[in-house]
Amino acid sequence: MKKVAVIVAGGNGIRMGGFIPKQFLLLKGKPVLWFTINTFLNSYNDLEIILVLPEEFIERGREIIELFDEKSRITITKGGNTRFHSVQNGLQLIKEECIVFVHDGVRCLLSKNLIINCYQQALIKGNAVPAITATDSIRLVDENGNNSIADRNKIKIIQTPQTFKSNIILDAFKQPYKESFTDEASVVEATGAAIFLIDGEYNNIKITHPSDLAVAEKILEAL
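Above: the chain's sequence. Below: its structure in token form.
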């Protein structure tokens, strides 16, 4: 089946403390976003990419795309005011039945194996949402500030690419926006659909803070 990756890089990177969005910061001499795009392009020869960027950084995105021989497989569109609206903008470019991957542009260390596993499960179950088990101690805090220990083996940390059959995710994103829509799974779940988790990867970190770049470099050196 046709495959489309909606890579969402619409953020402004405020938490990184600079004016350059984190997806454009350099990692081993290349923009963070380059690594994300490269892995998707190498996962399937027939996979197409819809790259969602802040409007003011679209030209910089085009410069990154020029680094790839298969740049014809990449389309750019502008982001929205929220993640929901950025994904929605990307989904509007999908016109035929396919498997849709929605991925954070700054999760640049995902593997081809994860992409393939998500695709194969989505074909069978309709969706695949990667998740890892929490390794730290977890405590739950109620509205009164009281806290209690939680079984971390029952806590899952959600990652991307969140992967869906196109009819499922396209229909879900016709809903009006709600603040509770923190990821694609929450949007799809609001339609009554069941969400199916799949093993994620501990290396599939999200570049959010400056220290994450140093961690990512160490991971790349070990691969």
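Helices lie at 32-43, 58-65, 83-91, 112-125, 166-172, 184-189, 210-222.
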